[in-house]
Amino acid sequence: xxKHDNQVLHKIKYFTAPPTNAQKRSKQRALFSANKIxxxxxFEIINGHYSDKFMRCxxxxxxxxxxxxxxxxxxxxxxxxxxxxxxxxxxxxxLITADSDQVSTIKFVLEKxxxxxxxxxxxxxxxxxxxxxLMGKVVFLENHEDKFRNAKMPGIVTGAEKTYxxxxxxxx
Length: 172
Fold this sequence. Notes:
By secondary structure, the chain is an alpha/beta fold. Helices cover 33% and strands 30% of the residues. It has one domain: Rossmann fold (3-Layer(aba) Sandwich), CATH 3.40.50. The chain contains 5 helices and 11 strands, in the order E-E-E-H-E-E-E-H-E-H-E-H-E-H-E-E.
């Protein structure tokens, strides 16, 4: 449990899909493992997956190629938010996204659970006009670099069995 400004943070739910690239997957796994050491059960990972999407080249070659497409992350997020609202587990939802697919989720919560407050933060250099128009007020995280500096993974995180070092390209 984490307390700040008379609020208690009970859970951080991180919705993602393990990257198909081995190096990126390894970095993500290290980040999540370090977060589990630092935050314990406060930090929960909810995984989607990637599925192959077949595309055809629009240029002259017209060849078919495969592109990985993230699946289930949006629906997992929506279902978790709605379940938390139905079970009375939340009074404030902090949503960090610029994915306009979440407009329906936000509308549903605003309509069906009017006592639940929703705060939306756009990741750096990303935005959604649909979410911004719906919410009126959103926070652009690129304007809050101090929050990033304070929330950075420590350079070294040591657990009972393993030590994790923040990757060099994350040290900016």
